[in-house]
From TrEMBL, chain B:
It is found in: Cell envelope. GO terms for molecular function: disulfide oxidoreductase activity. It comes from Roseovarius spongiae. InterPro entries: Periplasmic_diS_OxRdtase_DsbE, Redoxin, Thioredoxin-like_sf, Thioredoxin_CS, Thioredoxin_domain, Thioredoxin_ResA/DsbE_sf. Signal peptide: none annotated. Keywords: Cytochrome c-type biogenesis, Disulfide bond, Redox-active center. Its main location: other. This is DsbE family thiol:disulfide interchange protein.
Length: 666, 187
């Protein structure tokens, strides 16, 4: 019964979405307030019905209802409850249902919280949101029904891919989707503004909290995915430039650009058509990600089951939404320029460079990701584009961005005094140079780029803190007064400091774990000792242990440093009999200075497992935890900005009042 | 802003979309790795032996005049899967009567020698491909790779990755049996 309720609720949601696609936008053009406000009801109803469908699917998973094909394929009665629930979004169908759920949630969010948005803009925005909703709900119902039944029902399920049975990964798709799909509402706002033909500072302020919310989730989602890859896949890397990683990274890059260009639109009434374009492109890249993951277009470890029919349907949806919005853009954008003028050296100028670099970086990733497709189509050559391309092209774009990022917040709007800024930063520059020298002294060689990156990350970190300290006049006035100034500073300012500092912290992690990583792959028998980065790792053999739905070979590694015991690591290889697959559970000793990371590879040779010989992979990754700390700071900074009362979604309407620049009252 | 500039995004999107449409062609398999060598004569190459291993080097001439198909395996001491594959290859040579030729890919001769001393040497000939030139000629995408070459030097089969595990060995054994049957029918 439950699955039928779910299916019925989905069909109802589609009908509601169809109504919402038409009625409010017509009302907006006819000036009919009742029609416009119907969007509120329909947006909420959509959320309720898709929520019911999602709950129905989740229940089918929780009770292991093996009459539902999707449950059979992705669950098993012996699986722990958490992963049964996570199985709801583990498949193509289920994850798409989550996708439309989040789409509806953002629509309902604007309907409920966007009380300060003019009726016409809100009605148009929600209609555009409903267009997307209609497209994906029909896709779900027509090609990927999650509630399909099987008869006769099998006795048990096929299990979820064991690699995906992990707490980090159970949370990864919801967060990622929240980010991906969250940009849909920004897209809808942009299209609505194009239809209205009007973009102003107020528009930018309404859009910014939604952008920020989506951006935060995407940041958290990407970080979580990368963390998962780091400790679960057993390769010891945190980023592989896999096509599917790239398609989640591109909206992040453009979303970051959008976040910054929206500031200029909000405060200076400039960059209007640019902000609109970024809003459209950010969501377009999210859609592109959905398409690539589900169409089998590119080879990837992440891809869902391939089905060309689904691919064509999504491509059709993509054509309509991206093509339609960009055509509208080409038609309407030329007529909406204007706004504040500024000198090249100014806050606007800094943000412009930020935007250009981010867009170029996105373009680089896009070209690298799609290049294999281009060459195959044009030259009939199969190639793969790997980390060397991305490292060689992406890093040189990012380093100047980081360097300029340190200066940007110190520049004033309209016209800035660059000389004065550098004057204020001369100690920071000196310290950055010293930091690079110190690292050079402490390490035994490394690429020159790594030392440069350390210098730039230090520069960014210190300049960001310097700017914050100057705003609260930390050392100029008595401490208590500085604290009071800090309390009076808008939260968005703290948020920016935190996020920028977070990126600098993450860069330390990127550089440390890439440039000074040590790695050993050894063939060991019980008792063998391996030396890595000053640690002695003794292999004490492997035991067989029984888990809930797997059996594992658990290795014991005793780690000592200069004879003193450090820790004991237990890397595992788990075999899941139902899914017939094996996963690696790495063992990691985490410290701020670095991670000692061990994983057990397959028995080194045939019959070697019996003789107790194994292939062991040991890595030392310096500073790697700074990546996750930095990511957490980014999210926290975003959260702090989001909680700023100026941006608060439900904040009272202030559109007509020019934004006070200097001291906001608290 | 000029109209042309505003129209640029849609133009790019349309071009990229065109590629996507092409890419969805159902007969296309993005995972397939094509091999231009299949049914072609083995490429021209001539490799010196690995020092002090005690087997001769390998060149194309060694593959063109054999009574039965031979197996050419590309390996390296730094390659972990090769280690796992080594036992399978050894068993094929000892029990399956396979003639095995090796291309030691981008490997230091002393490392290769230590590796072979440690694990045993099932290879009849080993060419040292220090600079990877022969690897390019053979079009390998990584190590290990294993080829079946007919008696007259035609490449019949290519296996990418280690021939380890029931499925892989089965596939390889089938290909080898076919190659042998074809030779038997020919002579």
């Amino acid at each position: 019964m439950t699955p039928e309720i779910g299916q019925f609720a989905l069909a109802l949601a589609l009908i509601i979405a169809l109504v919402q696609s038409v009625l409010p936008i017509l009302g907006a053009s006819r000036g009919d307030l009742v029609w416009m406000r119907s969007a509120r009801t329909s947006a909420l109803a959509q959320l309720v019905f898709i929520g019911i469908a999602f709950a129905a699917l989740m229940r089918s998973f929780m009770v292991s209802d093996f009459t539902v094909a999707n449950v059979v394929e992705n669950s098993h009665s012996l699986k722990p409850m958490l992963y049964k629930i996570a199985g709801t979004w583990g498949s193509h169908e289920g994850s798409l249902l989550l996708w439309v759920l989040i789409l509806a949630a953002f629509g309902a969010g604007v309907a409920l919280l966007g009380t300060n948005i003019p009726d016409a803009l809100k009605a148009r925005t929600l209609s555009v949101q409903a267009w997307i909703s209609t497209g994906f709900l029909s896709f779900l119902l027509l090609t990927s029904n999650p509630f399909e039944r099987v008869f006769p029902p099998p006795l048990d399920g096929n299990d979820l891919n064991p690699l995906l049975q992990d707490v980090g990964l159970a949370m990864h798709p919801p967060l990622l989707y929240f980010g991906y799909v969250g940009f849909s509402i920004v897209f809808s706002f942009a299209v609505a503004a194009l239809i209205e033909g009007r973009v102003d500072a107020a528009w930018a302020r309404w859009v910014r909290p939604w952008t920020l919310a989506a951006w935060m989730s995407l940041t958290a989602g990407i970080a979580l995915g990368s963390w998962w890859a780091y400790y679960e896949l057993g390769w010891g890397g945190w980023w592989f430039w896999d096509p599917v990683e790239n398609v989640s990274f591109m909206p992040w890059l453009l979303g970051t650009a959008l976040l910054h260009s929206a500031i200029v639109t909000e405060k200076r009434d400039a960059f209007k058509s640019w902000t609109i374009l970024l809003a459209i492109l950010t969501f377009s890249l999210s859609l592109l990600g959905t398409f690539i993951v589900r169409s089998g277009l590119l080879t990837s470890v992440h891809a869902f089951a391939v089905d060309p029919e689904r691919g064509l349907y999504i491509l059709g949806l993509l054509g309509l939404s991206i093509g339609g919005s960009l055509a509208l853009y080409a038609w309407r954008a030329p007529s909406m320029e204007g706004g504040g003028l500024f000198a090249p050296i100014s806050r606007e100028g800094g943000l412009l460079i930020n935007n250009l670099l981010l867009v170029v970086a996105t373009g680089t990733v896009l070209v690298g990701t799609l290049y294999p497709l281009f060459t195959e189509a044009l030259a009939d050559q199969k190639i793969s584009v790997g980390p060397p391309f991305f490292n060689a092209s992406f890093i040189p774009i990012m380093l100047p961005l980081l360097a300029i990022m340190a200066v940007g917040p110190l520049l004033s709007w309209k016209r800035a005094d660059l000389k004065g800024v550098f004057q204020r930063l001369r100690f920071v520059a000196l310290l950055s140079g010293l930091a690079a020298l110190a690292v050079w002294y402490l390490t035994e060689g490394g690429p020159a780029l790594a030392y440069l990156s350390i210098a730039i990350a230090t520069w960014l970190l210190l300049a960001t803190l310097r700017e914050w300290a100057a705003r609260i006049r930390l050392f100029d006035v008595p401490f208590a007064q500085a604290v009071r100034r800090a309390r009076n500073l808008p939260r968005a300012a703290h948020g920016m400091t935190l996020a920028h500092a977070g990126l600098a912290v993450a860069v330390f992690g990127f550089v440390g774990s890439s440039a000074w990583k040590s790695e050993k792959i050894v063939f060991v028998q019980s008792g063998a000792v391996t030396e890595i980065a000053g640690f002695d790792v003794r292999f004490d053999g492997v035991q067989r242990v029984q888990g809930p739905n797997y059996v594992a070979d658990r290795g014991t590694l005793v780690v000592t440093r200069d004879g003193a015991p450090v820790t004991t690591l237990y890397p595992e290889r788990r075999f899941y009999p139902v899914a017939q697959s094996t996963t690696t559970e790495s063992a990691i000793r985490s410290t701020l200075a670095g991670d000692l990371y061990a994983s057990l590879a397959e028995p080194a040779a045939e019959g070697a497992a019996q003789s107790g010989a194994w292939t062991l992979r040991i890595l030392y990754e310096p500073l790697v935890n700074f990546i996750w700390i930095g990511a957490a700071l980014l999210v926290l900074g975003g959260g702090l900005s989001l909680s700023d009362r100026r941006l608060r979604v439900g904040a009272p309407r202030r559109a007509t009042i020019p934004k006070p620049q200097a001291t906001p009252a608290e | 802003m000029t109209r042309a500039l505003a129209a640029l995004p849609i133009l790019i999107a349309l071009i990229v979309g065109g590629f996507f449409l092409w890419g969805l062609n159902p007969s296309r398999d993005p995972n397939a790795i094509p091999s231009v060598l299949i049914s072609q004569p083995a490429p021209e190459f001539d490799l010196a032996p690995v020092d002090h291993v005690g087997v001769p080097g390998l060149s194309r001439a060694d593959l063109t005049d054999n009574p039965a198909p031979v197996v050419v395996n590309v390996f390296a001491s730094w390659c972990v899967p090769c280690r796992a594959e080594h036992a399978v290859l050894t068993r094929m040579v000892e029990q399956g009567g396979v003639r095995l030729m090796g291309i030691n890919y981008k490997d230091k001769p002393e490392d290769a020698r230590a590796w072979l001393e440690n694990l045993g040497n099932p290879y009849e000939r080993i060419g040292s491909d220090l600079n990877g030139r022969a690897g390019i000629e053979w079009g390998i995408s990584g190590v290990p790779e294993t080829f079946i070459v007919s008696g007259n030097g035609t490449v019949l089969f290519r296996y990418v990755g280690p021939v380890v595990g029931a499925e892989a060995e089965e596939k390889f054994a089938t290909a080898l049996a076919q190659a042998r049957a074809a030779t038997g029918a020919g002579t």
